[in-house]
Amino acid sequence: MEKLTTHALDTASGRPASGLGVRLLRGDELLTEGTTNADGRCDQPLLTDPAPGRYRLVFAVGEYFRSRGVESPFLDEVPVDFRIRAGESYHVPLVFTPWSYSTYRGS
User: Fold this and answer.
1) Which of 11, 16, 89, 100 reaches 20 to 30 Å from 61, CA-CA?
2) From CA 8, how far away is CA 39, in angstroms rounded?
């Protein structure tokens, strides 16, 4: 069974990003949304057996930092656009601070 998962790390604090809002879209359609757990992961895969095509993950990093007392984070939402091919699993981590981010295709 193929799946799509994510993981978020707040490198400003050096900890997993617990309580980070995440939305998954395909085109304009919202497929799912959730919040990361204490380990910075969603409790369930965002998708199982995903159809091939273009997708977008949107991470609510501005809200996350404001809830932690950062008054004016530079970043608000971080969109990550990517393609899924048939028969493959995808893990899309986000590593971020209030001012920068990085992502990659993990395993």
Assistant:
1) 89
2) 8
Which residues pair with residue 80 across a beta bridge? 57
Distance CA 1, CA 10 (A): 30
Burial of 66 (0-12, 13-18, 19+ CB in 10 A): middle
pLDDT higher than threshold 90 for residue 1: no
Q: How far does CA 84 lie from the centroid of its chain?
A: 15
Q: What domains can be seen in the chain, in order of their start residue?
A: 3-103 (2.60.40.180)
How many residues belong to the chain? 107
Q: Look at residue 40 and tell me whether its pLDDT is greater than 90.
A: yes
